[in-house]
Amino acid sequence: MSDLKENLEDKKERAILVGVDLGNTDDFAESMEELEALAEACNMEVVCVVTQKMPAIHHSLYIGTGKVQEVKEYVQNLWADVIIFADTLTPSQLRNLQQELDTAVMDRTNLILEIFSKRARTREARLQVEVANLQYILPRLVGMHEALSRQGGGSGLANKGAGEKKLELDRRKIEHRLAQLRRELEDVSKDRQTQRKQRANSGIPRVALVGYTNAGKSTMMNRMLSSYGGPEEKQVMEKDMLFATLETTVRSIKIDRNRQFLLSDTVGFINHLPHGLVKAFRSTLEEACEADLILNVIDASDPQHKQHIKVTEDTLKDLNVGDVPMIYVYNKADKCMSDSLPVIRGEDKIYLSAKSGEGLPELIEMIFKKLRSGEQLEEIEIDVLEKLLFELDHLYQQGWELAEQTLQEMVYYKRLAKIRKHK
């Protein structure tokens, strides 16, 4: 019985991908490859890819009527379980295609939402995904409701058919649930803001990893943790897969006694990321807004990396992140460059390999150089010596011996009476 259950869980859905090439972009082939990668990330097996060149999207079926019949034949011959369309379908297109093909139909937005639903682990991520999912479903319910309304007369639930009543009740349930979720997210967001304020008050610089999905952000964080003494249990999951992680993770990276920063790993971006997801994950992505420095991690080996940079920058603009200093970190450079790594170009570009660690020490130096450029010296109101004497007393209580070097540092700090405090 357990073997049967495992086989059912491991069974992959067989998917057919469908896309329309309007001839107005140069990256249609790459967008279909990305759709295939998204399907694989959702544990699906792509059995066929169907494309059609058209001057415009068919208003009711997305593809032409002849192509619909072709896809229907593929479904029967290849035992397909689901058909995934490369663009977001309108409610009427979705309904018409399901009727014509008599098979489960998804669009790109729905597929991404499915991936997020499977990967969400924390309470906040699950709430955010549910909000985005319900926002996606709601207009499609409304579209079906309008179609039924044209068939019936009268007004009010009393004069509606059974199916129409159900749609109306479903719509009300969704709206009620959305209101409830937004209230819960507001509470979670307040907790996150409190945590951010505490980190800001600590005076430790904050650095955020951002970038296109699967560029290597989690690998970068894990490499920094392992290189600078971070405990193994603090490492995050890394996998060669789109949207391997959704939750924002913050870790302390301590380079030496005098240099430390807080590093956050945010959810990856993707071309045409559903607006509902950007909005739902806004509080999570705001880690980048609050950062003192952004590391834009780029997969240098990807032929579309320039487009990925643009997608990341556009998404950051949507989040009103415009004036935060940035370093462009071209990761996986060992796959596409013959030069020995790292390769540094200017003050804000570095080519390296997070997996091997080549270029990491140089990146650290670039980070602190950028952070120092934003520092200011501020007079402090508290007596630094008094604070250090308190710490000294605590050390003696623990039975530790104080080195002469520490005493000299205390004298130095008393004389300076200043600290470096980050903006």
Description:
This protein has 423 residues and is α/β, with parallel strands linked by helices. The protein contains 14 helices and 13 strands. Strands 6-7-5-8-9-11-10 form a seven-stranded mixed sheet, with helices on both faces. It is globular and about 80 Å long. The relative contact order is 0.08. The model is unreliable at 143-159, 376-383, 398-405 and 412-423 (pLDDT under 50).
Q: Describe the largest sheet.
A: 7 strands, mixed
Instruction: Give the total of beta strands.
Output: 13
Q: Please report the number of helical segments.
A: 14
Query: SS-based structural class?
Result: alpha/beta
What does the average pLDDT come to? 80
Distance between the termini: 61 Å
Cα Rg: 27 Å
Enumerate the strands of the largest sheet in spatial order, edge to edge or round the barrel: 6-7-5-8-9-11-10
Helix content: 40-55%
Give the uncertain stretches in residue-range form.
143-159, 376-383, 398-405, 412-423
SSE arrangement, N to C: HEHEHEHEHHHEHEEHHEHEEEHEHHE
**What portion of residues belong to β-strands?**
15-25%
General form: globular
